[in-house]
Amino acid sequence: MTTRDDEPGRLDIDVRFLLANERTLLAWLRTALTLMAGGVALAQLAHDRPPLQAIGVGLLILGSIGGLIGYVRFRATGHAIRSGQLPTPGHGPALMTAGVVTLAAVLVTVYLLG
Asked: Where are the domains of the chain?
């Protein structure tokens, strides 16, 4: 984005930024679908181990939340771009990272203890 000369602090809208925002949404959705697919697989393959089934359900929930976070960020960023402002940073990536790391640690612990 470039700064407009007629209004300090206001940015020009470029279609490339809107398309990049859409690609970012698609990346969030791919990640969400991958987490949910892993959750379904884990829940199905661990039919006799309730802790692993619970982790599978956790992955399903995390994937669903990831899709929602991606959509909310897409809408907020699109609005910011269209109004010529910089998008506000969100907590979504940090929350997703914490969720993935936590579930991975729980999964490793269950495998090592079980």
From this structure: 24-113
